[in-house]
Amino acid sequence: MRKRWPRSCFFIATLGILIFVTSNDSNGEGGVNHYQKNLRYLSWGGFQRNIRPHGETVENTKIYLEIPDLKWRVEQMKLWKSAIKEAVTILPPKFVKKLGRLRFTFYVDRYTWETAHPSGNTVYVNLLPSVKRPEWMTWEPWPSDGFTREEMIFIALHEMAHIYSIGEELDQLYYYQYSGMAWWNDSHLEAISSIHCSSFYPSLDDDVRVISGHVYYGGQSFDVGKAVDHCHVHDFGVHDYENSFPFGGWPTLYGHVRGRNEDFADTFALYVMFPEYLEKNFPFRRDIIKSILAREYVTRYPMSGSIPSHLSRTIKDTDKVSGGDK
């Protein structure tokens, strides 16, 4: 039986908040570090009306769907806030600092399937999306039977990944790391096809000199040995792009259907919550997120609610609850 956060539940949220009341900057909960100083970047926008979702409408707009009362909304926001706090505090402080100020605002739109969307550094969370599926959705909607805590954490991580994502350069990264070398130089993506080195006098103006056996290019150091005195860096060209081989498929069905940005956001959330799934099935994707967060995670959350139905690979029952029941 799947364990869910009932829509009328309040006391669980209170218990969840206890996780974050601590005098230590970092404390472990079942093997996960919680960085309390990350909360300084988090703020709340309360409940707002007339928020326009990005997802398409799936309900008949000619039929009036009532917004739940204040008591229900307050209870739901407390549940979400507890889960969002956990999502923020399990991320590395340097990463959260790079994201900057984060603001979560809540609304209700029962006509759309959309659960959340970012705008700048604000994430808008839909407390009661429709459970109807668009034609392209072949998996179970998030709000079926109410959200589980794990679903809330996953969604919060997903939206923060959108805030981090830098658009088209992200698309390039998936291909570049197969055919050549790619790395982040601050917020800029550097990519090259290869480095050719020689002990002869450089014949090209853009050759790079070797210093103590290393070539320095784009903020990165390459160990090429002391037997050469110059190297030529080959850019990543069209030929390299055409000969790059597939990156192993998409970890989630949503990422497959909705494109690279959603694929990255889902992969990011999977890495933090269920890294073993990426390790077994998509090690290259795992390495991309690992290079961004600069830390490793272990699976400790159960794959509750709709999460398993979102995955593109079948998982065993033992994989669903690697971290034990909560």
Q: Outline, from the CA principal axes?
A: elongated
Overall radius of gyration: 23 Å
Counting DSSP E segments of at least 2 residues, the number of strands comes to 12
Mean pLDDT: 78
The largest sheet has its strands arranged as 3-4-6-5
- SS class: alpha+beta
Percentage of residues in strands: 15-25%
Order of helices and strands: HEEEHHEEEHHEEEEEEHHHHHHH
How many helices? 12
Helical content stands at 25-40%
Q: End-to-end span in angstroms?
A: 13 Å
Plain-language structure description:
With 326 residues, the protein is α+β, with helices and mostly antiparallel strands. The protein has 2 domains: 11-164 and 250-320, no CATH class; 168-242, no CATH class. It has helices at 11-17, 70-89, 93-99, 149-164, 168-179, 238-242, 253-258, 260-273, 275-281, 283-293, 307-310, 317-320, and strands at 26-29, 32-35, 42-47, 102-107, 116-119, 122-126, 181-185, 188-198, 208-209, 214-217, 220-223, 230-235. A 4-stranded mixed sheet has the order 3-4-6-5, with helices on one face. It has a 4-stranded antiparallel sheet with strand order 7-8-12-9. Strands 1-2 form a two-stranded antiparallel ribbon. Helix 1 (11-17) packs parallel to helix 2 (70-89) and helix 4 packs across helix 8 (260-273). The longest helix has 20 residues, at 70-89. Mean pLDDT is 78; it is low at 1-31, 241-246 and 316-326.
